[in-house]
Amino acid sequence: MLQTPPVHLEAASTLAVVVSSIEPLLFLSDDLKVIAASASFCRAFEIDPASVPGMRLSDLGAGEWAMPRLESLLRATASGSANIEAYEIDLKRPGKKTRQLVLNARTLDDGDLEHIRLLLAIADVTDARAEARLKDDLIRDKAILLQEVQHRVANSLQIIASVLMQSARRVQSDEARGHLHNAHHRVMSIAALQQQLSTSLGGTVELRAYFTQLSRSLGASMIADPERLSIKVTVDDSVVDADVSVSLGLIVTELVINALKHAFPDKGIGKIAIDYRSSGSDWTLSVADNGIGMPAGNDAPKAGLGTGIVEALVKNLDGKIELSDAGPGTVVTISHRETTDLENDLSSAV
Q1: Domain extent at residue 102
Q2: DSSP assigned state of 103
């Protein structure tokens, strides 16, 4: 009894797999004639299944598969000199919507050693690409809208700051005038932050630009003689979330205001230095002046609103605050350090 040669069994098995595949597939000879096409391919591209076997790839449909570049790549794949992996094409059919396709091709050993066969897989990514473009458009529109909102908020805060300054000029009470001035400086701090947010992406703030802008605002409103007093900013490339930048900005505002008010009573030449450094999740912020230093004993000033604000903000940032003598002047250092689980355990044990 004669047995069917194994080569025929393998070829028949390959044909059955291709025809029944739920994915669009083409089984091609090395001269790019269609041996078989999956039913899903014929449905997807509206081709009569009965007309496919033996037809050249370039003759499928209304000739839309006649692509010299694709044919060249398929022949190179058959010869072993190239591979088609995630090759993208636009399939243009008369009277139909252009489809974006991703093609993958490889040679198959179906038992016929005398002929090279190719399996061409087709993935239609038209809808997926359209959804991705729509998502990108929505994200871009949202970013533009957010920047516009931030810009308008910054403008509104600057208007409020101007009103506060006008009110400060009209009041008779020195105490009330001082409170209005302080309110003005705090509003300007947030206005500077909003202005920075309006030009940034993703709700993050570059601290060097923010602190520089903030120091300019404080200097313009509080330093009458820039030749006598100056503010220097030294910040690394740190970028922080917007909510963290709000706290840091308010801390800097309060410390700079305090230094400008109390560190230079003798009208001498002075400098205030803002410094920020980070390493991973750890960071250190310092505001230093070369003024008269902190008075001690009975001369020490009472803690005011600014001190309370700074302490609350530092606590909110899980930081610690340290006051030290700069000789001359004063340095206020706020630092944050991430603790490891082991350090936490040791601390608890102590």
Answers
A1: 14-124
A2: E
Whether the Cβ atoms of residue 85 and residue 120 lie closer than 8 Å to each other: no
Task: Give the pLDDT of the chain (350 residues) as one tens digit per residue.
Answer: 333 333 344 556 667 777 778 889 999 988 999 988 999 999 999 999 888 889 999 999 889 999 999 999 999 998 888 888 889 999 998 888 899 999 999 887 655 656 788 889 999 999 888 888 888 888 777 767 666 666 666 666 666 667 777 777 778 888 787 777 777 777 776 776 666 666 665 668 889 988 998 888 888 877 888 889 999 999 999 999 887 888 898 899 889 988 988 888 877 789 999 999 999 999 999 999 999 887 655 555 555 556 777 898 899 899 999 999 888 899 999 999 986 554 555 445 54
Give the angle subtended at the CA of 346 by the CAs of 344 and 349, to the nearest 5°: 110
Same domain, 264 and 318: yes
Tokens of 321: 């605050």
Residue 5 lies in a domain: no
Q: Which of 100, 124, 148 is the last residue of a domain?
A: 124
